[in-house]
Design brief:
Layout (H helix, E strand, L loop, with lengths): L2 H5 L13 E7 L2 E6 L1 H8 L19 H6 L2
Amino acid sequence: MIDLYIKLGFPFDADLTTDEAGCMVVDAHIYALLVTGPSFGTITGREPADTAVVQKVALVPRSTAASASTS
């Protein structure tokens, strides 16, 4: 699942990466959780969106302490 992103040079946090989800490190304060379609449903309780119809990005701070220190 994450091979493409590794080839592009993005590192992954090994402690937060499994066969079903990968925690991609974009930079020191930005992480992206990449999940398989079936895992998405178990995490959110919803089906993955139909990308032909819906476009959305959710950005959530990893911790309030990290975001407060950059203000």
